[in-house]
Amino acid sequence: MSAATTRSRIPDRLCAEAVDLARSAAEEEAAPGVVGEHVSAEADGDRVVTHFFECKDFGYRGWRWAVTVTRASRSKLVTLDETVLLPGPDSLLAPEWVPWSERLRPGDMGPGDLLPTEAEDLRLEPGYTGEDMPPPNSVVPEVVTPQNLVDLVEAEDAEITDTGPISDAVSDTAAAAGTETAPPPVRGTIASVAEELGMRRARVLSRYGLHVAADRWDESFGAKTPMAQAAPAPCVSCGFLVPLAGSLRQAFGVCANEFSPADGRVVSLAYGCGGHSEAAVMPAPLRPAPPVLDSMGADAFPLRPSSDSGSVPASSSSEADTSEGLGHS
Q1: Rg of the chain over all Cα atoms, to the nearest angstrom
Q2: Given pLDDT bands bounded at 50, 70 and 90, which one contains residue 277?
Q3: What is the value of pTM for the model shown?
Q4: Rounded CA gap, 206 and 58, in Å?
Q5: 3-state secondary structure labels for all residues of the chain
Q6: What pLDDT shows up at residue 170?
Q7: What percent of the chain stands above pLDDT 90?
Q8: If pLDDT is split at 50, 70 and 90, which confidence band does 160 have?
Q9: Which of 18, 110, 187, 248 is deepest in the core (most CB within 10 A)?
Q10: Mean confidence (pLDDT) of the chain
């Protein structure tokens, strides 16, 4: 350990004794009666000492007034450096600041609120925005160019001759609204196919974003909810279910029953409610057939045989008494 480090840990004597100078500086900065007792003095460096005073302000319990004093080398004059209010080890602090993007919860957005999406959002992935050029390993032969494909499609759709008035009407509507629309892609190009499939966007939903949304929908309107447990049948057989497109069609749909608690919501196909379209005519569940072997019944067995169960008929009581009196012949 160097000598400079050792000296910096030991408060300078003159600076440590300047308690009155530090107190006056703290009282000048704070309100009257706020500065309390002297707590401690710590060395911040060579001939640099910070004095801590108790803060009596009710709004800053546990905080301390920190006054830093110093002096020049070979000088006995102690001067003031700075005065601040710092939290102590037992002070009450505000919770750590959380960005708005992490504080936001579903349902917090209102009319007029804007929610910008992060550039590296895991729920999104890039869509098709490139040129209409076939990829290097495309199965399309090199002799077939995009222009040839355009000519072929235009020849097959020769009955659709003029779309000029429709395009002009769309342009006039956009101009009246003050917006500019991009020209539609030429039929037969990769861009037109991407637009038809809904992929011609800057970013589309990624597989991670798809799974997160599916888990959230299944938790709200899934098979494990109390409403689905008491439903007469699942939504997969309900006439009010509007199926979704794409891969979500296999597990989710949109409820169109105005009397259902999930009206207008994305519901799982395993979800259900009392508003099922076939609830009134739903056949009653079949009763199970009786068991072949009745293991629940009990058969009565006598503890001793009855008197008339033997092969020899029983004699009357008088004959028995007479035989016993005469003895054996």
Answers
A1: 46
A2: confident
A3: 0.40
A4: 52
A5: CCHHHHHHHCCCHHHHCCHHHHHHHHHHHCCCCCEEEEEEEEEEECCEEEEEEEECCHHHCCEEEEEEEEECCCCCCEEEEEEEEEECCCCCCCCCCCCHHHHCCCCCCCCCCCCCCCCCCCCEEECCCCCCCCCCCCCCCCCCCHHHHHHHHHHHCCCCCCCHHHHHHHHHHHHHHCCCCCCCCCCCCHHHHHHHCCCCCCEEECHHHHHHHHHHHHHHCCCCCHHHHCCCCCHHHCCCEEECCHHHHHCEEEECCCCCCCCCCEEECCCCCCCCCCCCCCCCCCCCCCCCCCCCCCCCCCCCCCCCCCCCCCCCHHHHHHHHHHCCC
A6: 46
A7: 22
A8: very low
A9: 18
A10: 75
Q: Is the pLDDT of residue 153 over 60?
A: no
pLDDT surpasses 60 at 28: yes
Q: Measured between alpha carbons, how far is 205 from 302 in angstroms, rounded to an integer? A: 79
Rounded-to-integer distance, Cα 207 and Cα 213, Å? 10
243, two tokens: 């199926």
- Which pLDDT value is given to residue 139? 45
Length of the chain (residues): 329
Take residue 222 and report the two structure tokens written for it: 């899934």
Rounded Cα–Cα distance for residues 121 and 123 (Å): 5
Cα separation, 315 vs 307, whole angstroms: 11
Is the pLDDT score of 270 beyond 90? yes
Location of structure tokens 């749909």: 253
Q: Compute the distance between CA of residue 269 and CA of residue 266 in angstroms, rounded to an integer.
A: 10
